[in-house]
Amino acid sequence: MPTEEEFAVQRERMVRDQLIDRNIADPRVLDAMRRVPRHQFVPKEYQFAAYRDRPLSIGYEQTISQPYIVAFMLETLQMSGHEIVLEVGTGSGYQTALLAELGACVYSVERHRMLARQSGQRLDELGYENIEIYVGDGSQGLADMAPFDCIIVSASAPSLPKPLMGQLREAGRLIMPIGDRRSQYLERVWRVDNEFQFERLLQVMFVPLIGRYGFKEI
Ligand code: SAH
After folding, report:
1. Mean of the per-residue pLDDT values of the chain
2. Among residues 65, 92, 108, 119, which one is catalytic?
């Protein structure tokens, strides 16, 4: 097993080769990716591969996204540090930690009770205090905490869930994969003067968002 120092070297290399070389340029995103110890968010048996250019299994048929995809999504949100953020699909909590580094406060919803519990514990141990994790169907958003400056959904849906549109603040940004179960596009949505502007950005493959405004469970 690599030491913490070796992991730090791997992390620096990940930022250079997978992010900077592929045009991720927001210094706040790059710094956050340098700080958050990704290896602590993956199961022990995959820690050796934590900084590779690929997604990894986190159990319960779920995955932690490839570092580049996480950085790409974070960069599209153009966060400055003051944002109230909704994350749907906490999973390992890795992206949650990055959001907590980049914004003011993160509300994260996870459907799997065990994943929510594990990631909550991990984020506590790492000392994050501006994160709240909820168990539930994030396709319905989190009405009690709305509106949000930024919404990030890390599971795919056939279309943009209506409640999420309603919970996005004026001038807010949302990013999520939209498409069918096999393939999707990351789409960024800006709320401008109460209209929603969609931008199709990158072809991706995410696990499905299972819920009322996502896919049905099969
Ligand atoms: N960003 C995560 C990746 C999570 S994978 C990470 O960094 O690890 C997608 C997650 O979305 C899974 O954990 C899955 O359980 C969750 N999910 C799927 N449908 C959901 C829903 N309706 N509400 C909340 N979470 C959901």
Report:
1. 97
2. 65
Burial of residue 214, with CB atoms counted within 10 A of its CB: 0-12 exposed, 13-18 middle, 19 or more buried? buried
pLDDT value for 11: 98
What is the third-level CATH fold of 4-204?
Answer: Rossmann fold (3.40.50)
Instruction: Write down the residue that tokens 């109460």 correspond to.
Output: 194
Question: Which atom of ligand 1 is the closest one to the Cα of 63?
Answer: 5
| pLDDT score of 195 more than 90 | yes
* Measured distance CA(89)–CA(86) in Å, rounded: 10
- Residue 149 C-alpha to ligand 1 middle, in angstroms? 20
63 Cβ closer than 6 Å to some ligand 1 atom: yes
* Ranges of H-type helices in 77-181: 94-102, 113-125, 162-166
Whether 92 is catalytic: no
The residues spanned by each domain of the chain are 4-204
Residue 218: its pLDDT value, please? 82
Question: For ligand 1, is residue 14 a contact (CB within 6 Å)?
Answer: no
| 3-class SS of residue 119 | helix
146 burial level (CB within 10 Å; 0-12, 13-18, 19+): middle
Helices 27-35, 67-76: inter-axial angle, 10-degree rounding: 140
